[in-house]
Amino acid sequence: MSTLVTESVRDNRTVRNARKLERERERRVARDERAERKRARESGFANVANPRKSTLLTVVCAIFAIYCLFPFVYLLINSTKTQADFTSTFGLGFGRTFALWDNIRTVFTYQDGIFARWFLNTIFYVVVGAGGATLLAIMGGYALAKFRFPGRKAVFAVIIGAISVPGIALAVPQFLLFAKLGLTNTPWAMIIPSLVSPFGLYLMWIFSEQAVPTELLEAARVDGAGELRTFFTVSLPLLAPGIVTCALFTIVATWNNYFLPLIMLKDADWYPLTIGLNQWKDQASTAGGQAIQNLVITGSMITIIPLVIAFLLLQKYWQSGLAAGAVKE
User: Fold this and answer.
1) Are 281 and 296 in contact (CB under 8 A)?
2) Would you say the pTM of this structure is higher than 0.70?
3) Cα(85)–Cα(97) distance, rounded to whole angstroms?
4) By CB count within 10 A, which of 27, 65, 70, 208 is most buried?
């Protein structure tokens, strides 16, 4: 009996000691956290594990978020209005009639449904042009990162120079060149310039340099794998974040391209959405033209939906791709 009592007392003492040690550990952790926050305040940087709140940064981020979301809110509200409500009501207020579905139906039936043709043209330019630009950037960036050959530094200088030249400065020379070749007012006038993406090539070069270890490639070669097999089975899966990031950049650039099709295309059947919607917008200023701002707004809302969906679905990939190279090892 005395033995049981002694063991019970010993167990209780052990439990109390454990609780005491746990409380001391919690106090030590809390003390360390307070000291870390103090050091962060003094140095001006916040600890990632214990971020400090900043009212100023919160206000700045809120203002920036409102600035970015304002056009979307404007599109959503005004796409629900009729033409009469669009011209007679406040821009951020709903009209007297909810006409969203009627506007969408009219957008796809106006002028014999030419909006659908513009939409398909844009998708075609994106799939062929942006897809080809992404493929060329992947192969070129990987080759520049993992192979050594004469003139590699010269290629790097050319790529940096191409990035620094704005695309609009090359539009007129491209038009003169394509006019000599007889390719203006054809889909090739949109596709061929879209195949060249200096920024995509540079992005894939830098990403391939860090994402694909040279030792892994050497191990694959020792095992007897050829360069093509090594690229498709070993390197390509590791390049997925960079590929998605490059693809999104090229897709957005091709989807929003305005000046190049403006000078290259004359036939409305080959217009992308940017030129087509602008033509609808300017329709009211022509003699006998009809104002259809409600259709322009609704068409613009429909135009951005594929891009929004693409960014939401591929968010985790392009974020990791943008962060590549941010940390020095």
Assistant:
1) yes
2) yes
3) 8
4) 208
Give residue 306's identity as a one-letter amino acid code: P
Query: How far, in whole angstroms, is CA 56 from its chain's centroid?
Result: 27
Nearest to 296 by CA among 309, 311, 282, 315: 282
Q: Residues 207, 146: contact at Cβ < 8 Å? A: no
Helix (H, G, I), strand (E, B) or coil at 273: helix
Tell me the C-alpha distance between 127 and 191, whole Å: 10
Helices 131-146 and 198-211: crossing angle, nearest 10°?
A: 50
Residue 125 reports pLDDT greater than 90: yes
**DSSP-derived 3-state class of residue 287:** coil
* pLDDT tens-digit readout, 297-308: 999 999 999 888
d(CA 76, CA 93): 11
Residue 223 has phi, psi (to 5 degrees) of -75, 0
On whether the CB atoms of residues 295 and 110 are closer than 8 A, the answer is yes
**What phi and psi values does residue 178 have, to the nearest 5 degrees?**
-70, -30
In this structure, what DSSP letter does residue 130 have? I
Residues in the chain: 329
- Euclidean distance between CA atoms 210 and 300, whole angstroms: 39
d(CA 101, CA 302): 12
